[in-house]
Design brief:
With 256 residues, the protein is an alpha/beta fold. The protein is 36% helix and 23% strand. Helix 3 packs across helix 4.
Length: 256
C-alpha cells in the first residue's frame, strides 16, 4: 500500500507554524508498513486542493488530507475535496447530529458565549462520504473513495486518524543501523548493498554524535535481514551503535 499526504494551509507555506502533521502522519503510516510516496504543502485555495486530490487520488492507494476544516473563510478543504472527486457538498446527517451534540455541550458549559456556531458549517462533506468522529474538537473528518480528510489542529488530527488507522497497512519494512564512519566513506558499500539486494538505502550524518545513521527499506523482511548481515560482514564497514556497542535492527526513526 502506498499513500500520499496533503497538508493544507497558508500558515504552513508562510512558516507561521511548523508542519508537524506531515511528520506525525508519515511516521504512523510507515510504522504500519505503508509506503509514503509523496508529501505536499498547498495553500487554502479550493482549485489547488481539488486538482491535487483529483490527480493524487488516481495515482496512490490512499490520500490523507489534513487542514482547512471548520467554519471560517479559509476552511476550503471539504468543498475542494468534493469538487476534486466530482461530488456535491452536502450536510451529512450523522456528522450533523454529532456536531450539534458537541455544540450543545459547549454552550451549556459556557453560557456566556454569545456568538453563533452552526452544525452545518462543520458537518458538510462530499456526498457519500463516511464521517470520522472527532473526539477532540468540532470538525469531524471523513473518508470518501480513497481520500481521508482530517482536521489540521494536531491534537484533533491525531485523534481522528486513530479512528481509521486500521485502514492502513502494507509490507514495507525498515532496518536502522549506525556507523562511526562519515557518510562519504560509506558510499561504495551502500551503493553495493542497494544494487545487490534491491533495497532502498538512506544515510544521515549526525555530526554531534559523530556517527552516520543508515536506513534500509524494502518489501521483504528476509531480504532486509540479508542486507543487514552483508553490511555487518563487509570488511571495510564497521557498524556500531551508541557506546560502540553492536546494533541490530532498530525501530524506524524519523529522518528529520
Amino acid at each position: 500500500m502506498n499513500a500520499a499526504i496533503v497538508t493544507v494551509g497558508n500558515e504552513l507555506l508562510a512558516g507561521d507554524i511548523e508542519n508537524t502533521n506531515a511528520t506525525w502522519l508519515s511516521e504512523r503510516l510507515t510504522e504500519r508498513g505503508v509506503d509514503v510516496a509523496r508529501i505536499i504543502v498547498i495553500p487554502d485555495d479550493e482549485a489547488v486542493v481539488a486538482e491535487t486530490v483529483r490527480e493524487w487520488g488516481e495515482r496512490f492507494d490512499a490520500v490523507v488530507v489534513t487542514g482547512g476544516l471548520g467554519g471560517t473563510p479559509d476552511d476550503v478543504t471539504m468543498p475542494a475535496v468534493a469538487a476534486g472527486l466530482d461530488r456535491e457538498l452536502v450536510v451529512n446527517a450523522v456528522a450533523e447530529a454529532d456536531v450539534q451534540e458537541t455544540l450543545d455541550r459547549i454552550f451549556a458549559e459556557n453560557p456566556d458565549l454569545d456568538f453563533e456556531l452552526r452544525a452545518e458549517w462543520y458537518a458538510s462533506m462530499p456526498e457519500g462520504a463516511t464521517p470520522i468522529p472527532n473526539p477532540e474538537g468540532l470538525a469531524p473528518g471523513c473518508v470518501v473513495e480513497n481520500v481521508y480528510v482530517l482536521p489540521g489542529i494536531p491534537e484533533e488530527m491525531e485523534a481522528v486518524f486513530d479512528n481509521v488507522a486500521g485502514d492502513f497497512g502494507g509490507t514495507v519494512a525498515t532496518r536502522t543501523l549506525y556507523s562511526p564512519e562519515p557518510e562519504g566513506a560509506l558510499a561504495a558499500q551502500l551503493g553495493e548493498v542497494a544494487d545487490e539486494f534491491g533495497v532502498r538505502v538512506g544515510s544521515y550524518p549526525n555530526r554531534a554524535a559523530d556517527e552516520t545513521r543508515i536506513k534500509l527499506t524494502g518489501d521483504d523482511e528476509a531480504v532486509l535481514d540479508e542486507a543487514v548481515a552483508w553490511l555487518r560482514e563487509s570488511a571495510d564497514l564497521s557498524l556500531t551503535g551508541a557506546g560502540a556497542e553492536p546494533v541490530g535492527e532498530k525501530a524506524a526513526e524519523p529522518d528529520g
